[in-house]
Amino acid sequence: MRQKVPKISGQWLGHFKYGPEYEKFYGEEVEFSLVLQELGDNQFEGKSYELDGIGANETVSLVKGYVDGNLIHFVKEYEEEFVLLEDGTLEKLEPPGKSILTYDGEFDYRINCYVGTWELESQVANAIDGVIVELFTGTWELTKLSDK
Question: pTM of the predicted model, to two decimals?
Answer without folding.
Answer: 0.86
